[in-house]
Specification:
There is one protein chain. The chain is of the alpha+beta class. The chain has nine helices and 21 strands. It is elongated, with a radius of gyration of 35 Å.
């Protein structure tokens, strides 16, 4: 039993919680510094073989899903929960005692003498004590007493509870969230992963500043549930995601796409839109694959390769690659509408446009994180802005006066000044 008590004290201690927070913050910092989701070879190329080994061994390639951070978050939750549960009885006793009649010999922080009871009541009300009770001290003297802001006693406790809910909401969200990526051009219907939702890109615009730099990306989308037919419409832009049918759509990035037309012996065979990085198997010869690797709006050839001189469509160029049965048949850059001939097939790239890439997330525990944030804010308000003030008055029967005392642990000099000002005021 003693061992369990010691373990409880350690887990519920401030030092244990702070230590876990420092470790968690360190892992999160590493997760921000180290690119996530890369391979061992990529890490070895970026850093070294030894560093890559440590990154993979410690799960730093996917920090927020690593066993380490999950275990530490769990221990932190247990620590906060233990700390809160252990403190409840003492807080309840303190809360009740604050509303009781003054104890024998309780002096308070400041005092004053008033001649009659009605004046005492008026001055107590002026100090914010609206519920004034009467009673007897342990010595049998008549007394008046009241308290305001008792809820402030629970400020730190509520704040800890909010942090606990935040950690739980974030941790469970990271474990159970669903993340999908869809990309396409206006008019495309895109299935969201293995879900029952289809997103239609209605429009996509890029707003630019006067210096031709990008100001904002905005996609207008419609999301439809293919099973029920329910649909919702909205817009998503950078830092302003759209929440539609229970999923959140983030404007993640953009790139170029182009229409690709394939003819065979001069007869139209197929036409599709390819985004940069996509591939198109030829309809009647699937072992022949055409890929659009990059697009250059204002093509310029340099010693380092093709690049673009500006974002204007002055000299469009397409970097293509052709595979036949898995082997590279050719790779080059061609100008706009310039035909690419492969035996009896002719391929042309035309009508370039921007595509939008959307990241789609569904986090079933977002509500818990939001609740945690609200509870934490409530705890901060209680702890720092709700000041418990106790005022009581004991009648001195021998002198026929009331001795008024006050206490406000968080009030300090301001409370003393307010108390003195009210006591000196003529009622």
């Amino acid at each position: 039993m003693e061992i369990l008590i010691k373990i409880r004290k350690v887990i519920g201690s401030m030092g244990f919680a702070v230590g876990l927070l420092v470790i968690l913050a360190s892992f999160c910092a590493l997760g921000s510094f180290i690119p996530q989701g890369e391979t061992y070879a990529q890490y070895a190329e970026m850093y070294s073989d030894m560093a890559a080994g440590w990154i993979m061994a410690l799960g730093l390639d996917d920090v927020y899903h690593s066993p380490w951070i999950i275990a530490m978050a769990a221990f932190l939750c247990i620590s906060l929960l233990t700390c809160n549960l252990v403190r409840v009885p003492a807080l309840v006793r303190r809360f009740r005692k604050a509303g009781e009649a003054p104890a024998a010999g309780e002096n308070g922080e400041i005092s004053a003498e008033i001649s009659d009871g009605e004046t005492v009541r008026a001055k107590m009300r002026a100090l914010g004590i609206l519920r004034i009770q009467s009673g007897k001290t342990a010595e049998g003297s008549e007394c008046l007493y009241g308290v305001k802001g008792r809820a402030g006693i629970w400020g730190a406790w509520v704040c800890h509870l909010g942090i606990l809910l935040l950690i739980l909401g974030f941790g469970l969200g990271q474990i159970f969230q669903e993340v999908y990526t869809v990309y396409g051009v206006p008019g495309d219907d895109l299935r969201v992963g293995d879900t029952k939702y289809v997103v239609t890109i209605e429009n996509f615009t890029i707003d630019k500043r006067e210096d031709d730099t990008v100001d904002q990306y905005t996609a207008e989308i419609t999301v439809r549930n293919v099973e029920t037919g329910e649909s919702e419409h909205g817009t998503t832009s950078v830092n302003a995601p759209a929440r539609l049918l229970g999923m959140t759509y983030y404007q993640n990035s953009t790139g170029f796409a182009a229409d690709v037309t394939v003819t065979r012996d001069g007869e139209p065979l197929q036409e599709e839109t390819l985004c940069a990085g996509d591939f198109l198997p030829v309809a009647d010869k699937e072992e022949l694959v055409i890929g659009l690797m990059a697009f250059y709006p204002d093509l310029v050839m340099t010693d380092q390769g093709p690049t673009t001189a500006s974002s204007e469509m002055n000299n469009p160029g397409y970097l293509y690659i052709v595979y036949y049965r898995g082997e590279v048949l050719g790779m080059n850059v061609i100008g706009g509408n310039e035909p690419l001939t492969i035996d009896e097939y002719t391929v042309t790239f035309h009508d370039p446009q921007n595509y939008t890439l959307l990241q789609v997330k569904r986090d079933p525990f977002t509500w818990l994180a939001l609740l945690g944030g609200l509870v934490t804010m409530a705890g901060i308000i209680l702890a720092f802005y709700v000041q418990m003030t106790r005022v009581w008055a004991v009648r001195d029967g021998e002198r026929g006066i009331w001795i008024v005392r006050g206490s406000c642990p968080k009030g300090g000099v301001l409370f003393r000044e307010r108390f003195e000002e009210v006591m000196k005021r003529d009622e």
